[in-house]
Amino acid sequence: MDRWIEKDLKYVWHPYTQMKDCETLPPILIEKAKGIKLYDNKGNIYYDTISSWWCNVHGHNHPKIKAAIKKQLNSLEHILFAGFTHKPAILLAERLVSITPEALTRVFFSDNGATAVETALKMSFQYWQNIGEKRKIRFVSLDNGYHGDTLGAMSVGGVEQFNAVFSPLFFPSFKAPSPYCYRCPMGKERASCNIDCLKPLEEILKNNGEQIAAMILEPLIMAAGGMIVYPKEYLEKAAFLVRKYNVHLIVDEVATGFGRTGKMFACEHVNIQPDFMCLSKGITAGFLPLAVTLTTDRIYYAFYDDYEKRKTFCHGHTYTANPVSCSAAIASLDVFQEQDTINKISKTMPVFQEGLEKMRDLPFVGDVRKIGMIGAIEVVKDKKSKSVFNFEERIGFEIYKKGLAKKLLLRPLGNIIYLFPPLCIKREELVYVLDNFYEVIKDIEP
Fold first, then answer.
1. Are 349 and 370 in contact (CB under 8 A)?
2. Closest CA to 353 of 331, 372, 337
3. What's the rounded Cα separation, in Å, for the pair 358 and 380?
């Protein structure tokens, strides 16, 4: 075994990894990366089909973002953000306000997706406390939603595989059925339903609205919960309902933001004005940790008062608005603009989505889901009954290994196999990925 891997297995504990598996399939040592390709220490190449956990937007080692980081390091690497500020944070906040929904005018910085969500939850909660609505202390979310791994974010999450062992630590929240069309919670067919899965949400809001502070959801695609792509009408109607019952709307765009759905933000597919937007992952194009929570003037001014009134938002992180991270984020936004990224991917999306659609007829493919440059298939044992592979069969792990043999980095979510490539992917690279992805899925052996 390579000495570096020996040291890794001696000292390192990897996330979302059963370390015992590493005895037979050790971690792969990546030494460099460029574009959508990763290069290991043995000379092997892997196509990064999942953007290194959905954060790499413009490809690895992008020269413009690298240059911005180097330039920032020559002047300021870090400073506390309480009572101090710096130009990269100010410029980034201005840019984000200019490209997000109109009502979002204030930017609060943090470190990662879960902290952006925690910030939104706490802001919403304290807003109602500050204006005297003391009963509004609960939240509502979707039962397949995922919003991060901190306890607050998990309390409004619903992925049983991640949550079960920690559930005694969560605060209680209301859960509404997910708009999961392939496995409709109402037993309906999408072609003939009237977004009936919205009715339980309305009942929750109608009966409990006076004690609910906010609803949180991922707009149009529920990512870690199974890459569940749902109808635009659901998002529009859910936004209407929370307004009707005087509840905040938090949109978690950590995974969906920065071009992934074919628009800069998934919210742009519909006409809604959220009270909070959570951003991270692609914000620095995968170079450095950074997150933001955007909110409205209405929320902001509920905290704006004399100090002795105790309305201050007492929340923050050591690396809040790190200037190097902010500089990387500004450079990434520049790349979007200079390379006309959103327009370019509109030409790539048909190739991507047609390639995925070809997999629908494969024996173990139950559903094909796609939006923008995100695509997923749900593998099943039986198409008619939609029966799933058992946890013990580890079909995802087998597909991961088959993917490596085809030079594809895949990271299945159980029975959900997805593609989430960097937006810079070239046509010939996309064709290679789709062709080999097809071969991997075709060769599934239960």
1. no
2. 372
3. 17
Contact between residue 291 and residue 109 where contact means Cβ atoms under 8 Å apart: yes
Distance CA 373, CA 421 (A): 7
pLDDT tens digits, one per residue of 177-214: 999 999 999 999 988 899 999 999 999 999 999 999 99
Pairing of strands 138-142, 174-176: parallel
Q: Which residues have a catalytic role annotated?
A: 16, 146, 252, 281
Tell which residue, 133, 106, 132, has the closest CA to residue 247.
Answer: 133
Q: For 244-259, what is each residue's pLDDT tens digit?
A: 999 999 999 999 999 9
The angle, 0 to 180 degrees and rounded to 10, between the axes of the packed helices 199-208 and 232-244 is 10
In sequence order, what E strands does 181-329 have?
Answer: 212-217, 221-222, 228-229, 248-252, 276-279, 291-296
Backbone torsions φ then ψ of 426, nearest 5 degrees: -85, 160
Domains in the chain and their CATH numbers?
A: 3-58+340-442 (3.90.1150.10), 66-338 (3.40.640.10)
